[in-house]
Amino acid sequence: MYLYLFLVIPLLIFLVIYQIYRITKQFYHPHNPPFLRGEIPVGVDAEDMVPIEGYDTKRGGKGVSVKVRSWMPETKNGNAILFIHGWESSMGYFKDHIRHYLSQGFLVIGVDGVSHGESDYCDILSLVNMADSIETARKWMLSKYKINKVVLWGHSLGGVGSTIGVGTGLIGKIDTLVIEGIFSDSQYIIKRYLNSSPLPNLISKSFLWMMRKVFLSTLPKGHRMKNLKDLSVFNPSYQLENIHVPYILVHAVGDHVVSYSEFEEMIKVKNPLLVPISLEKGNHFTTQDYPGYFERIDSALNNALSVNPTLHST
Fold first, then answer.
1. pTM for the full predicted model
2. With bands split at pLDDT 50, 70 and 90, how would you rate the model's confidence at 4?
3. HEC states along the chain?
4. Domains plus CATH for the chain?
């Protein structure tokens, strides 16, 4: 009996430690693999490395900057779209979107989130520093251009960061959101990486504290979300109730990264400004390759932008 415990207990401890290491490694490494950067469309109007306000405690006191680019349409409609990519991607993911919306008259802005693309590396990946990347790009855009309405378009992790950022106020004034392929509950990502574990329940519970570290420990001193204890604030379904602008939610039935059931959970939220779009073709990365993708989103987007025109300023 004692010999059995002597053999089994160390094995269980090893499995717990290994699973936590395996998941944590997904967050604690540089994220910008070149094969996911994609092609940057030509005709850039302006580009900068823009420092994130308050991030001077990172990278040896050098600060953290994000890469921001803009493209100007030949014929302007007065509105702008700000694109933010997902995990291990970059603004190049939106190459087809950029070309399409330039043809529609939108000023287009792309940003590489921290630790992605051409932006600076920042310790670990955080939903909050993703939102801070977006806000940095938004302020940069408004400092350079006179804009009527701003659309924030986020894919995957960028969509989660957009939702949390707008819902909490970390991101300033946005007129419409287009959000693709996101989970409804922040613990979805834990379950995704623990599904092969022989001890999923035990490890899930033990990982909750580390989840908080993943989401919050990259924040600089004085950040107003630093002492937050309630993880529900990181649930897009929770923050959707706090969003009071049109929210266009797009998800592919065949999404192989974020289950379609997450979309079904999101659309249960009672928000009259929620516009769900379910796509029959494509997966997490390829929906834009299928006919009708842009047409369906454009219809919802035009309806959203046709209400109460506003003018943005810094």
1. 0.82
2. low
3. CHHHHHHHHHHHHHHHHHHHHHHHHHHCCCCCCHHHCCCCCCCEEEEEEEECCCCCCCHHHCCCEEEEEEECCCCCCCCEEEEECCCCCCHHHHHHHHHHHHHCCCEEEEECCCCCCCCCCCCCCCHHHHHHHHHHHHHHHHHHCCECCEEEEEECHHHHHHHHHHHHCCCCCCCEEEEECCCCCCCHHHHHHHCCCCCHHHHHHHHHHHHHHHHHCCCCCCCCCCCCCCHHHHCHHHHHCCCCCCEEEEEECCCCCCCHHHHHHHCCCCCCCEEEEEECCCCCCCHHHCCCHHHHHHHHHHHHHCCCCCCECC
4. 2-305 (3.40.50.1820)
